[in-house]
Amino acid sequence: MNEENKMRELRIEKVTVNIGVGSAGAELENAKGLIEKLTESKAVETLSKRRNPVFKLRKDLPIGVKVTLRGKNAFSFIEKSLTANKKVLKLSNIDKEGNIAFGVKEYIDFPGAKYDPNIGMMGFDVCVTIQRKGGKRTSKRRIRKTKMGKTHRIKPEETRIFMENTFKVKFE
Known about the structure:
The chain is an alpha+beta fold. The chain has helices spanning 26-39, 72-84, 137-140, 156-167, and strands at residues 10-20, 44-47, 62-69, 88-89, 100-104, 124-132, 170-171. It has one domain (8-136, 149-171): 50s Ribosomal Protein L5, Chain: A. The protein has a 5-stranded antiparallel sheet with strand order 2-3-1-6-5. It is globular and about 55 Å long.
């Protein structure tokens, strides 16, 4: 009996959906309404980290919105987002820690979304965080923090195989 170790299985920890607008105002409110409609969750405003006079940004000025999804909601949202991208991703969408980030250029490509003339054309970013069971938490917790072993880290190749098997994604 050669069974796979359950602690080595990959799973989706969370999905973060983000729309960056760049300034506060009506466009930010439209983005907030759009992201809440697509994800069926409450959106949180993202704030600028530093001052940038070229883009007329002050520190702590709202410049975008994001939603974090977990569990079944995350899984179904990834499937819809990949359908909007025709289930094709690039290998460069996977980072060195095994997470995936890709964009949907226009929200009308998303299944079930209809064009709203008040919002206009807008895209969004999808970031998928992948983990092993009992993995990264040990290196992030406050008490009894430990290092994560090299064999427990996720390689980009493992993420590629996971996405191909789970979501039937093709990589270019």
